[in-house]
Design goal:
With 692 residues, the chain is mainly β. 4% of the residues lie in helices and 65% in strands.
């Protein structure tokens, strides 16, 4: 999946997060009163849906990811085996007690400590442009220590997930250390690729690639350690250290090219990837003051040291002579720093939240394939916001405004850009009665040009194509209006909605001929517009035994850029069924991925199906399953560009039977995990080398 990724109504979620320092799940005195719709599994609030795990869901879970899967939240697609959480084809921002977290952090949660899960499908200004937010509210464990060990290896390929995590408590202090290892080593894959180049004079050349095998590596290791001091309703301090390492991320394809002009066939090897490590540090302080006021400050920093590489080799299959031999190696040493501060003031029926943040990135890239030339890029972003929440009768409303200043500069060329952008957002909710509510939300956000999109160093992709960034790119604006109707009926609850989106100057790819080179660059396009209709139900067929949830979306979109205007419509969705009894749980999941139009290319992530059977006994969990028992794995893309029209399918040996075993003992008396309301984003950039 392609990620990407920066939106307004954090009012209510701030209050909920502020209440998380309470040692129980009871509602604290300072929490705002609110009209809620109560169902058997979900409470619908003005800006979120709240899910309380049932006893059976907890008993049939060994970690936070499994519990989330067992909640069967409509719209969500949770895949523990592939370590992914998505919604409507988009990445979900995960938080624990209000602070940004990773899937590894979620996996390290003890199911019995998760009091509720907040599903926010219209995130506010504090969430930095996230499409969806999932917030785990973690309460006091009953033990003074806990250990989690798990392993889930595949049986037929070198693929699997392994994790260990331990938590210890001393007075008001808590220590945690954990490690996760993900193995993907030389898993067989191949590519089917066809393309047609059209030259400015109208002539064309087609090349069809017949696959001759290939493989994918994606082995990662992550280590985390944290210390927190919690004095409820007074002070929270958190220090976190992490080390993420991508030991090897490499894709290699072998093929035989046949050309439409009658030339001899060409033997092809196309390989690209990256490897590197990212240490990170975060310091967090939350201080309560009199008159229901709070100040929250977070600082974080990270450093990426690694390399990106690509090899594109064309040979005569008979003589083995090189026709094209292209190597790209980029060494990065990129730093990021961020600091954020929020002020929160609450009254009985209203709340004011104001905040400011500063994020800085300093990128240094050394191009070994260009005689060791070094290039530097500086990125700075300043953001201010304020928002106000008010409840009146059956209505609740939140309104806010953010202002963002962005600036980036290339040292060697002394070229760059800077701009101010406004980020308004508003939400209004009406609760008709205890079973129905309606919510209208408007949001906006900005996307700054990435390192790859602005890098003007020419990189050769193949015998025809080169990649060159554009330093004249401007920050892109996006706007979204969403109407949702939430309903709760006997054994059925869910959401129906309509969403309109536009990005009038979206940053998209641009292709053009420059002599005999086809340049792949970027532009501020003439815009993307789409309209989506979606339905997300959850059905209790047999309560506590058999449940079904799903998400169905139909989207119509239109993209315009230099020399093109493309319309695209399509369905997407997912479905999950769970059957549980006698400590056994059988789960079947299916995901039909969203086909995304961006620029002149339509891409799809994987269509996945998986079946899993687990059994829980005391502190142990045993399981077995199959990834992709039906159908063939396929990631595809189709370019409609007039100069290079192509279609690509990446197929992989994903029919993987696997087993899993986990052990989670607890002991003594454990302290509450820290409550972190904000998290300053200090993620680093990474260069991209070659690759078609």
């Amino acid at each position: 999946m392609k990620q990407t990724t920066v939106i307004i109504a954090a009012a209510l979620s701030t209050v909920c997060a502020a209440a998380q320092t309470q040692p129980t799940d009871s509602v604290p005195a300072q929490e705002l009163h609110e009209i809620v719709i109560k169902a058997s599994k979900v409470i619908r609030k003005s800006d979120m849906d709240v899910y309380h795990p049932s006893q059976s869901a907890v008993e049939n879970s060994n970690n936070g990811m499994q519990l989330l899967d067992n909640l069967m939240i409509p719209t969500l697609s949770v895949n523990d085996a592939l370590s992914s959480i998505t919604a409507a084809g988009q990445q979900v921002q995960v938080r624990i007690n209000g602070r940004t977290a990773t899937i590894d952090n979620v996996r390290a949660l003890l199911p019995e400590t998760i009091r509720r899960v907040e599903w926010i499908d219209n995130p506010g200004l504090r969430y930095g442009g996230a499409s969806y937010v999932l917030n785990f509210i973690v309460d006091n464990p009953t033990a003074g220590g806990s250990l989690q060990l798990s392993a889930a290896p595949a049986l037929n390929v070198a693929f699997g997930n392994y994790m260990a995590d331990v938590k210890l408590n001393f007075g008001r202090s808590q220590f945690e250390i954990g490690n996760r290892f993900k193995l993907t080593n030389k898993v067989k894959a191949h590519r089917e690729y066809s393309e047609t180049f059209t030259y400015p004079d109208g002539s064309s050349l087609s090349r069809d690639e017949s696959p001759l095998g290939g493989s994918i590596d994606n082995t990662q290791n992550s280590l985390w350690a944290s210390y927190n001091y919690v004095r409820p309703d007074t002070t929270v301090f958190i220090a976190e250290f992490g080390m993420w390492s991508n030991m090897r991320n490499k894709t290699r394809y072998n093929g035989l090219l046949s050309l439409s002009d009658g030339s001899d066939n060409i033997s092809l090897t196309d390989m690209s990837g990256y490897e590197g490590s990212t240490p990170s540090l975060s310091l967090y302080l939350q201080q309560h003051f009199a008159h229901r006021q709070m100040l929250v400050v977070d600082f974080s920093t990270s450093l990426y040291i690694g390399k990106s590489f690509s090899d594109y080799i064309e040979r005569n299959p008979v003589t083995a002579d090189y026709l094209n031999n292209i190597h790209t190696n980029i060494h990065d040493r990129n730093q990021a720093y961020a600091i954020e501060a929020d002020y929160i003031k609450k009254w009985n029926n209203s709340r004011l939240t104001a905040g400011a943040s500063y994020r800085a990135k300093r990128n240094r890239s050394k191009y070994e394939s260009l005689s060791g030339e070094v290039y530097h890029q500086r990125q700075d972003k300043v953001y201010f916001f304020a928002e106000y929440y008010q409840r009146f009768g059956h209505w609740t409303a939140t309104a806010g405004i953010g202002a963002q200043y962005t600036d980036y500069l290339f040292r060697e060329s002394d070229r760059g850009s800077h701009s101010w952008s406004a980020r308004p957002q508003a939400t209004i909710t009406y609760s008709l009665n205890s079973n129905h509510n309606f919510r209208l939300n408007f949001t906006s956000w900005q996307s700054t040009p990435s390192l790859e999109e602005t890098n003007v160093v020419a990189q050769q992709i193949d015998g025809f194509q080169w990649r060159v960034g554009n330093q004249n790119l401007k920050t892109a604006n996006s706007y979204m209006l969403t109407f949702r109707y939430g309903f709760s009926l006997p054994r059925v609850n869910g959401t129906f909605g309509v969403r309109a989106f536009t990005s009038p100057n979206a940053i998209t790819p641009l292709r053009y001929w420059e002599g005999d080179r086809l340049i792949n660059s970027y532009e501020n396009s003439r815009g993307l517009r789409n309209l989506s209709f979606f339905l997300a139900p959850q059905i209790e067929i047999v309560p506590e035994w058999l449940n079904l949830s799903g998400y169905l979306q139909y989207r119509m979109e239109r993209m315009k850029g230099t020399g093109y205007a493309i319309n695209h419509n399509g369905w997407s969705g997912n479905a999950q069924m769970q059957l549980s009894h006698w400590n056994f749980m059988l789960t079947a999941e299916y995901q039909y991925s969203q086909r995304d139009l961006w620029g002149e290319t339509i891409t799809s992530s994987e269509d996945v199906n998986i079946i899993t059977l687990t059994y829980n006994w005391k502190n142990w969990q045993f399981g077995a399953g199959v990834i992709m028992p039906f159908g063939n794995y396929d990631q595809s893309s189709r370019s409609l560009n007039k100069w290079n029209r192509n279609e690509q399918h990446m197929r992989m040996n994903m029919r993987m039977p696997f087993v899993q075993i986990a052990w989670s003992p607890q002991w003594g008396r454990q302290k509450q995990s820290a409550n972190k309301l904000i998290n300053a984003d200090a993620s680093t950039d990474r260069s991209t080398a070659g690759g078609r």
